[in-house]
Fold this sequence. Notes:
Radius of gyration: 26 Å
CATH superfamily of the largest domain: Neutral Protease Domain 2
Number of strands: 16
Structural class: alpha+beta
CATH topology of the largest domain: Neutral Protease, domain 2
Strand content: 25-35%
CATH class of the largest domain: Mainly Alpha
Helix content: 25-40%
Number of domains: 2
Shape: elongated
Largest sheet: 7 strands, antiparallel
Amino acid sequence: xxxxxxxxxxxxxxxxxxxxxxxxxxxxxxxxxxxxTGPAGEPGLTLxxxxxxxxxxxxxxxxxxxxxxxxxxxxxPEGARDDYFGLEFFGAIDIAEAGEYTFYTTSDDGSRLYIGxxxxxxxxxxxxxxxxxxxxxxxxxxxxxxxxxFEGVVDQVLEVAWEGPGIEKGPIPSDRFTQxxxxxxxxxxxxxxxxxxxxxxxxxxxxxxxTRDGQGLAQFHEVIPAVLQEHYPAMLxxxxxxxxxxxxxxxxxxxxxxxxxxxxxxxxxxxxxxxxTANPDDLGCFIHEMTHIVQAYRNTPRDAGWLVEGIxxxxxxxxxxxxxxxxxxxxxxxxxxxxxxxxxxxxxxWIEDEYDVExxxxxxxxxxxxxxxxxxxxxxxxxxxxxxxxxxxxxGE
Length: 397
């Protein structure tokens, strides 16, 4: 039975099972590379210079328009433009003595450093000047080296250093570099686009999933479109507003160490690789973040900030996408609706149940049209938000 046509209970059982199996089979780290055999190449490294607008060095691998030269150091080249460019350096590095070596990149914006096919330094994505490092055990010999960098806007910084047996931290000497072919590439099948259709709604949505930085989450190429195929119409029942556009495309991108399970920005949802590897069944997070994409609120007033996250968790609750997640049915000590999220969602649901009125759809429409007023709650219920909150507090257990 195709996953997207299974009954709801069976579908989620199959999805959860698939998620668990994929997570347990996540790809292991690359083993330490073996030294190259054969004679060394000519001195230097190959430098490829790209003029491009990207936000990860992973995208450089698919670009064909570049200039190529040989250089003797890893540094920003003369003649590079101020913004929107990328660099690839590749060749071989000579390791004179076996031991553990630490490599560093300081970059603004993103960079990565590979020895062989092993990622040693992950310092990618847009950010100010940041140093990151990684260690790797190497035998004596020559190893393929690959360093990639991109610059978005404002400052441009790229510095590479190393330390190891008998070597203090500092730049890698040019006499350690020899030319060698590029050995690093990124899986093209880790980016997919699925066009979802709901003919009865006259709605389509192109869903792109990028797991290049989450290869242990390859199942998301099937799971995320399946979740949206089933639940997007119910989301639109709550969030769609007449004569206001819906998103035509959405991207889901897996990235490491983003500081939260997920966030939505600019038509894209970024998923934390560590969180979803540990919590692959957190499917409701997709619904929460997709709600933000559909919300697209304009000029949200300060006193309505709680509604942005509160409505997202309200939709997540109404959809019922994950059984392990729930919101309180009554007031609990410490709850504060102004914090948004589950506290606000529980408050909104209580208002609708207690007063038998729809509150979220008209409030959502007012926010989308830039016409929100706090007295909308009084118009719907006859009471102010403060009076409603005082009533809700009395439901405490």
